[in-house]
Structures are given as structure tokens and as C-alpha cells.
Amino acid sequence: QVEKDWVPDATMLRKMTMHGKDINGNPFPPPLSEELCEDIGSAGEGISGDSNKECIRESRIRPANNGSLTYPTVSIDISNHNLAVGDDKKNSSTTTTSVSAPSILCLGDTLEDAHATRIRAIRELWAGGCDGFVAFSNRSDPRIPAISLEHEGPESYDNMWQKVRSIWRFVGIHYIQDYDWFYLGGGDLFLMPNNLKAYLASLAHKNESDPTTKEYYVGRRYNHKIRGPYNSG
């Protein structure tokens, strides 16, 4: 049970990752469990049976050389995002430079029955690479940390937008001044935080802009035939 006005400590996992121990003195992240290495979310008919892994393998996505999860800087190519349409990239500089890593609050939309599975995997694999992490569920649990928020309508996939509205309202009240960027995804999300930080750091160099003075909305945009364009979760 938590108090009605309880606000999760979003820095809990980050602190545990930096110190290498949880609040009970056990190693954190803990040794990788075999049950977290099984193929999950099978939707394809490929060799591995997991279409998401097949996509990563075929696209040759690899972790960027940006240090450990808690490394304070990232390496960026300053030409990545500062070219206007029509500019000749061949004639541009491709100098790589090291810059301070931006701070990111990672947010997860989930349900109680995923606390011990999907959310556990997120906690133990990559959430410590975010400067803050909070899961938004239908049941609060300070150990994750996860919080249950009231929102309009039922707790259902088809009513996700109302839950997302409540999430952003909560973030705007309690965390908006503490981070440079805010990243929201579902419980089936796998993220390489250092790669994301490197991308966002290079994005902030566009037109010498700064996320603390200029607002950004970044995501993978779908052009749905019925709903129209929207950014995916």
C-alpha cells in the first residue's frame, strides 16, 4: 500500500545501477536469468521464432560505442542533424565529438500481471541507463517503482490514450523540471538508452538549438489510413 499522494522516486534504479547494488545490498543489475533469454513475443515464422529479434539481426542494429549504462558522455557525429534539405552531405564535416549525455526520464505503460515478467526484464536490463524510470500500472509498487493513476474510462488497450493523458499530466506536475527528455513506451519495450541519448544529443545540435529552450516531439510516425498520422508507442 502507498499513500494517496505518493510520488515514486524516479531515480531509484539509476542510483542502484551506479552503485552496483540494490537497497538490500544484492548485486544490481542481478545476473541475467535464463528465463529472460527465451524467445518471446513470437509473431513470425523465421529461424528464431521471434520476429523482433529477426528484425534487429537483419537490420544489423548494434549497440553504439558510448560506454556503460551510466557513462556521463556520449559520442555524436555533429553532421547527423544539421543539414538542411538539399545540402550535400559529402561535402560536410563528419567530425565525431564527445558531449554531455542528456538526461532522460523513461516511462513504461503496463499492468500488474507484467510486473514480474516484462517490467522485471526492463528493470534488470536497461532501465538503469535512464536517469529516471517509472512504470505506470493498475497497481502501485514502490519496489519497481510503479504507480497506479486514475484516468477516464476503463483500464484497457482501447482506452490507452486516456491513461497516457494521465501519465503526461503526472509527469508535468512532478518531474518536468528534472530531465531534458521524456520517453514513453509499453511494457514490451527494449531500449538502448545510450544510443537514444547519443541521438538526442546530436538532435539538440540542429541549428544550435537546445531542448531546454526549444520543444521537441520525436517518434516513429505512422500514417494510418483511418486514424491519420500519429507517433507510435
User: Would you list the SSEs in sequence order as H and E?
Assistant: HHEEEHEEHEHEE
> What best-fitting shape do the alpha-carbon axes yield?
globular
Which strand order do you get reading across the main beta sheet?
5-4-3-6
Q: Mean pLDDT, as a whole number?
A: 80
Structural class: alpha/beta
Strand content: 15-25%
Rg computed from alpha carbons, rounded to a whole number of angstroms: 19 Å
- Terminal residue distance: 29 Å
The tally of helices reads 5
Poorly predicted sequence stretches spanning 5 or more consecutive residues: 82-89
Number of β-strand runs? 8
Percent helix, as a range, is 10-25%
Main beta sheet: 4 strands, parallel
Can you tell me about this structure?
The protein has 233 residues and is of the alpha/beta class. 21% of the residues lie in helices and 17% in strands. A 4-stranded parallel beta sheet has the order 5-4-3-6, sandwiched between helices. Helix 3 (118-125) links the parallel strand 3 and strand 4. The chain is globular, with a radius of gyration of 19 Å.
Summarize the structure.
By secondary structure, the chain is α/β, with parallel strands linked by helices. Helices cover 21% and strands 17% of the residues. It is globular, with a radius of gyration of 19 Å.
Layout of strands and helices, then pairs:
Elements: H1 12-19, H2 51-58, E1 73-77, E2 96-100, E3 104-109, H3 118-125, E4 132-137, E5 146-148, H4 160-174, E6 181-186, H5 193-203, E7 221-224, E8 228-231
Parallel strand pairs: 3-4, 3-6, 4-5
Antiparallel strand pairs: 1-2, 7-8
